[in-house]
Amino acid sequence: DAKTTQPTSMDCAEGRAANLPCNHSTISGNEYVYWYRQIHSQGPQYIIHGLKNNETNEMASLIITEDRKSSTLILPHATLRDTAVYYCIVRALGGSQGNLIFGKGTKLSVKP
Amino acid sequence: EAQVTQNPRYLITVTGKKLTVTCSQNMNHEYMSWYRQDPGLGLRQIYYSMNVEVTDKGDVPEGYKVSRKEKRNFPLILESPSPNQTSLYFCASKQFPGQGRAEAFFGQGTRLTVV
User: Fold this and answer.
1) pLDDT digits (tens, 9 = 90+) for B4-14
2) String of b and e for B62-92 (b: at least 16 CB within 10 Å)?
3) Which residues of chain A have a CB within 8 Å of the CB of B111?
4) At A80, is the secondary structure helix, strand, or coil?
């Protein structure tokens, strides 16, 4: 699985958009970009995933660059409850193990 | 409601006393796995199971056992716990890799302390 690089921490004002970057310059053609978050030692929660097109769901948007070497998770109107560690994970959809390799992630602090 | 349920949520035990942490999912998922989370080391996979009676080691399997006798249950067994197994444990389930929905569902965690 490709390695990812994320900033250690970020701050965001409540109500503003939170843009969390992820670098995955060694991503291969069959690997997807997944985002999970973990709120204060709770179980990680799936947010969104994508291959090459931008994706949007009720939680967030995922913007993937044309060369697929980086992506940005966007929380359009961050709330205090979005304070969490956000993990960007790259892996193939049909990987035999299904193992998710969590790096250190980005600690997002949403401030009033 | 789709969920992964772990029990107990908190456990303090003594070195060498066998324990089992249960995990159950109600989504008919084929794939289940166990992770441990430690400060500075992140989440690491202990064991996984692709289906009933099919289990395999993850990245840190030493000191742990698992079984998968039923599709919905995947217990984690510590035959002789030691203090270095003090950790936060998560069970996860997902549909078989490559089929259907891609996301993994995680339990709420079990905080284990071995003294």
Assistant:
1) 999 999 999 99
2) eebebebeebbbbbbebeebeeebbbbbbbb
3) 41
4) helix
Rounded CA-CA distance A106/A109 in Å is: 9
Structure tokens of A83? 């304070």
Q: Give the Cβ contact number of residue A61 at 10 Å.
A: 17
CA distance A95 to chain B (A): 6
Task: Give B-chain residues touching A98 at CB under 8 angstroms.
Answer: 31, 33, 48, 50, 94, 96-97, 104
Burial A15-53 (b: 16+ CB within 10 A, else e): eeebebebbbeebeeebbbbbbbbeeeebbbbbbbbeee
Whole-angstrom distance, CA of residue B40 vs CA of residue B99: 33
Beta-carbon contacts below 8 Å between A and B: 64
pLDDT tens, per residue, chain A with 112 residues: 668 999 999 999 999 999 999 999 999 888 899 999 999 989 999 999 999 989 999 999 999 999 999 999 999 999 999 999 999 999 876 555 567 888 889 999 999 9
Query: Which of A41, A45, A99 minimises the CB distance to B88?
Result: A41
Continuous segment of H or E residues that includes residue A90: strand A84-92
